Amino acid sequence: MSLFGAMRLPRSVIFGSGQRKTIGAIAAQFGRRVLICTDERLSNTPEFAAILADLENCGMTTRIYGRTVADLPIEGIAECTNENRSFEPHLAIGIGGGSCMDMAKAVSLSLTHHGNLRDYYGENKIPGPVLPVMAVPTTAGTGSEVTPVAVVADTEKGTKVGISSRHLIPQVAICDPELTISCPPSLTACSGADALTHAMESFTALPREMSPDLVVKNVFVGKNVLSDQFARLALSNIWSSLYRAYTNGNDLEARERMMLASLAAGCSFGTAGTAAAHAIQYPVGNATHTPHGVGVALLLPYVMEFNRPKCVPAFAEIARMLNIRGDGDDQLSHNLIDETAKLLESVGIPRTLKELGLPFDKQDWAAENAIGATRLVNNNPRSLDLNAMYQITRAAYSGDRASLRSV
Q1: In what order do the strands lie in the sheet with 159-164?
Q2: Cα dihedral sign for 250, 185, 343, 71?
Q3: Angstrom distance (rounded) from CA 126 to CA 145
Q4: Segments of the chain scoring below 70 in pLDDT
Q5: Is residue 146 within 8 Å of 175, Cβ to Cβ?
Q6: pTM
Q7: How far apart are CA 173 and CA 16, in angstroms?
Q8: Looking at 10-128, which runs of residues are DSSP E strands?
Q9: 94, 192, 86: which is closest to 139 by C-alpha?
């Protein structure tokens, strides 16, 4: 098969310890009024105060929206938009975790294209460019600083929804690992496990048939030679550094490698897409009110087990890269799944949906709601129907991963 690759990335990606000090000078290239989207905790830190002072020293007039909350309810997006429409910012900066960066994306959309945010749910619904966004992550996990996605919570519908468009990709991503030093172990594990899932699912995403309109009609185009390179970079760094960062938050090298991994995983899944673990997490997260990264990571070994018959060569390639031992591709593919589960358990990720708090009678409900996430379901390397979803959610609830080997 002919080689195919596609990438859509920010115009500038700046990575390295101390690089937050470039924010002011780069932001000034976009204009003089900047809206900063962050959360209450971060807005009261010395690091944020230094970034704000840098912006002001570079001649910027700033407005701060510091009430971003996890899962990003659409009411908060509307509030931020309405409060700052008359300010007419030239740039929106999202500083924080994925919700803060997604807030900047969503507000930029709302400030540029009027109407109901629900009009843009799904893929390729945004008609044109939005207000420029700069993304500054303070966790190493979501990869939102480089992706074409904003995930919001539609509280009226009781679900999380993705808005996907190349127009949502930030213009600039500034990734400073020093900003993650203060992340507690639980957040380090949750965000790092999210990056692991992004990289694994994008590396094994279903390859698409090449056509002239593939990258025009689709935001996510499946496994390809360019996204694979970023997935490999992410996986190798997560494998060497997630446990280190979790057990010693002051290990700067581990923090650097985890932020590099998160960035690389974002570059990978931002083009290739993710799959079944993400599809199932949406209803599970809504039912349990647990972090996205915990949910997708818990589900990952079960999804890998289900997908293994279609992923033996890919899993074996990853296993060899990570120096996991085994005789032949088949054994290596099994061993990779086992070692992935062990790594996640070592950083405190729950093993089962029961431990996560999903009620017993919600197992099949989660499957029934997940099958409707067609973008993610269609990206899975092994075909999914409702019965397959039942098998995965039931195994993930009981912890019986072996039951999926005969499915």
Answers
A1: 122-123, 159-164, 149-154
A2: negative
A3: 19
A4: 1
A5: no
A6: 0.96
A7: 11
A8: 12-15, 33-37, 61-65, 91-96, 122-123
A9: 192
